[in-house]
Protein 1
Amino acid sequence: MNKPIKPPHDDVAGPSARHKTTQVMVGNVAVGGGAPIVVQSMTNTDTADVEGTIAQVAALSRAGSELVRITVDRDEAAAAVPHIRDGLRKRGITTPLIGDFHYIGHKLLAEYPACAEALDKYRINPGNVGFKDKRDTQFADIIEIANKNGKPVRIGANWGSLDQELLTRLMDENTASANPRDARAVTREAMVQSALLSAARAEELGMPKNRIILSAKVSAVQDLIAVYQDLASRSDYAIHLGLTEAGMGTKGIVASSAALGILLQQGIGDTIRISLTPEPGGDRTREVQ
């Protein structure tokens, strides 16, 4: 298998042209702060299937994925995580593992401390960490567990699961404005605010900036470019780039390349993922390649 080509960040944008961000250590991998752009991917196995997940993480790592995200969605998956980590280490694979949590991440991390310790980073989506009054407390619970274990987090706003309370408030303010903007522009602003407000809250809870990575994933190329340009201009957090639900095969490759290529050329982005929709029976490593 050919070794994948790394994004030529220094040749394209030049070190002085890159958006200056705070460096975050994810396991043994540096993200941001001028470090080389990090390629990452995600498994599509059932995480409770320890051997199947180990095999896919190993394949993604061999293909060039420097970080691998796994879904931690229920008790069986959380219980499997330390066994996956240990199985990979026995095979000599030290690729950091990222836990992807939805709704009950705070509960799983609290009830499975070995899982919280085995993961190298936690991914939190502000739009689905919890509902209404529970959102703030459940977000705080995850941050506190991350602090206890010395783990970084990615706070990832997503167009498809945006904080509806924030979006509604911004839409109402926009309607009352003397010069209202179009709805897409307001939604983009909600994406940026969701990420920045959540990061500020994490810092209030004691998480240092050098353990926070931000993302704001959108499925439309022009929206993605606009959101990340705005996010980069308003913060110096390390930034994860990715087009969410990019699509299958060539469609996903072209859309992701168009969006991420422009942002990387502008010096924006510290770690990237090409989120290809899996083809039936397809090779998961294609998105890494």
Note: The two ends are 10 Å apart (CA to CA).
Protein 2
Amino acid sequence: AAGRRLAEVAARNAPPPLNTTLAVVATDADLSKAQAQKLAGTAHDGIARAVRPVHLLSDGDTVFALATGERPLDAGQPLALNEVLAAGADMVTRAIVRAVRAADPVVGPGGAWPSYGELYGGVRREG
């Protein structure tokens, strides 16, 4: 039913806008430039978990990572970075899902685009 409603909206409107997802992942871990780059890459997997389709030619999906350096990684644990990397991907996924569920419909020059809640119902607003 949601697919049918979305097709009806698309038929009334201009072509859908191009889709880009931007994310910022921040940690208090002390990461090198290479480790922060790896965090951005693995956090990008969070987009792939939450967005379909993803990584198309018309997408500009990007994740930026930053680290404050306040907390050193456990030197006695060689794979300590893995926990940070996994958390980055998980948090990007959760952030996208929360944003989509909280979004309002959009009305603009290209037409009126329904929100997830309008298409699928049952969305509880988070405060």
Note: The CA atoms of residues 21 and 61 lie 5 Å apart.
Protein 3
Amino acid sequence: MKIAVGQFAPTAHTAENLQTMRRLAGEAAASGAELVVFPEEAMLSEHLVEEGFEQLVMDGWSGFVQQLSFLAAETGVAVIAGGYESSADGRPYNTLVTVDARGAILGTYRKLHLYDAFSNRESDRIRPGDRGITVVRIGELSVGMITCYDLRFPEICRAVVDAGAELLAVPAAWFAGEHKLDHWQALLKARAIENTVWVAAADTCAAHTIGRSAVLDPLGVVVAEAGEDETVLTAEATRERIDEVREVVPVLANRRFAPNPTIRDAAGTSGD
């Protein structure tokens, strides 16, 4: 199936961002894509909101999801996009939503690993996810979702693949900084190679992020890559390519550790 990645710079205004997404989804549809992946914060950029963030989230989340449904149905393309969902404690969830080409909601994923690194404290403003992983079926592929900083944790990516994902969708707002582009590109390659799955990564291209969205095949080969400007990438992602790579590099079949391995000490006794 043909997949697309829509890279853009979200503003603080949801209506503006939806207008951009509708235009980019139209481009994806015109190219024959069945799925378009948009970045984290596609709903609005928290970085740009000067005040009233929690109220914007309370007022805006359900409308954003509804408009995504309309957008998908209008263009005939399934959509994955990130936004902010209100919670009980005032800190919203950083949530991805997947909508099929008819506008039906297939699933949501609340970001598990918050960006408490590189002198940032996302957990001061955002509530960590509490629903585990999410895998949905779109066209001929099962798609697993992770968000930005999740990419640094191989165990969540392996859990998503163990749950059946053949394509890893990675919406992100990957901050710029020393070595950050190197990390982004290396981690995308690693997650594709170690799991032998397709990876579709959609980053924002704002002043504080790197852009460089990409699609990688199950051998870690970059088949499409963006620069630093708004764009739509497309690539053909097939189950046949996964089977071909896994026949040559059967790392999932050859592994010696279960998802939750038993740890044994030097005497051979098992422990929890």
Note: Residues 261-272 have pLDDT under 50 and may be disordered.
Protein 4
Amino acid sequence: MDDWLAEILGRAPSDAAPFHRALTHGSQAAENYERLEFLGDRVLGLIMAEWLWEQFPAEPEGQLSRRLNSLVTGAVCADVARDLGVREHLRLGKQARDDGASDSDNVLGDVMEALIGAWYREAGLEAARAFIRKSWGDRVHSQGKAPQHPKSALQEWAAAH
């Protein structure tokens, strides 16, 4: 796992324990990814908001919010986790393994955020920013127009009809 972490992060962490925790599901141990996920979610949101603000200087707040919301969803985080090879390093209990947790968007998305939280604690904001920008890559620009949240689209449709 240490070689894999060094590959995705750019260097091996000085303390691997938080990363082991970030990859540990609650079915495996009481010391699991949940607290790191909480932190990583906030770090991801901040860095993504900053990145979008830089990349789309002419867009108003509403469009930036829609872009942000579409890029930090559990499904997108899970896709990034799959691209990085997180599935092979998950630590799951037998029941979670049997239930297919290693391919769950919820689990993979949460673990991705936990890894961000662990890396932020280890290396700071600049390193977290570099990791997120590298990991999300072209996803920031692949949308073209700012997407509309499905709930907003439904509300607009209902109001019009």
Note: Residues 5 and 11 are 7 Å apart (CA to CA).
